[in-house]
From TrEMBL:
Chemical reaction(s) catalysed: an N-acyl-L-alpha-aminoacyl-tRNA + H2O = an N-acyl-L-amino acid + a tRNA + H(+)
Region annotated Disordered, chain positions: 50-78
Enzyme class, first EC level, given as a word: hydrolase
EC number, UniProt record: 3.1.1.29
Ranges that cross the membrane: 18-39
MF terms (GO), sorted A to Z: peptidyl-tRNA hydrolase activity
Protein name, per record: peptidyl-tRNA hydrolase
Superkingdom to which the source organism belongs: Eukaryota
Record key words, sorted: Hydrolase, Membrane, Transmembrane, Transmembrane helix
One matching Pfam family: PTH2
Organism, scientific name: Toxoplasma gondii ARI
């Protein structure tokens, strides 16, 4: 064999090097596709721990001691999920513009919670998707 050939493949040295680079890149691409497919197949795999029962998280010690007859209507668990939208008054928007912006904010928050698989999204959806807009200065 000549000095300019690769002793493993009998090819010129440059071709053998390119072959190994192609092999490792292909292997890396296959492993990347496999990892991406497994994450799509098992979307509950996450770095942060998930809450087993999201509706129990919102209950505080004071809520447990409060009178169940007081307050507005709640779910059968005694808890309600509401999205609170804070509207700034210094922006000088009309009622229609405020309503449109609240709609955009609600949709954006819903999409973000769905993408992150937020544990509060399902109970909020099941409780009627209640929304409250409050004025802030």
């Amino acid at each position: 064999m000549h000095a300019w050939t690769d002793w493993r493949l009998g090819l010129p040295a440059e071709a053998g090097t390119l072959w190994w680079i192609f092999l490792w890149l292909s292997l890396g691409a296959c492993l990347g596709l496999l990892a991406a497919a497994s994450l799509r197949r098992f979307p509950n795999i996450s770095r942060r721990p998930r809450l087993q029962n999201a509706s129990k998280v919102t209950q505080r010690e004071g809520d447990a001691k409060s009178d169940p007859e007081s307050g507005d209507s709640e779910d059968e668990d005694g808890e309600s999920f509401k999205m609170v939208l804070c509207v700034r008054q210094d922006l000088s928007m009309g009622k229609g513009k405020i309503a449109a912006q609240c709609g955009h904010a609600t949709l954006g928050a819903y999409r973000q919670a769905a993408r992150r698989q937020d544990p509060f999204l399902a109970p909020w959806t099941m409780s009627g998707q209640k929304k409250i807009a409050v004025k802030i200065k």
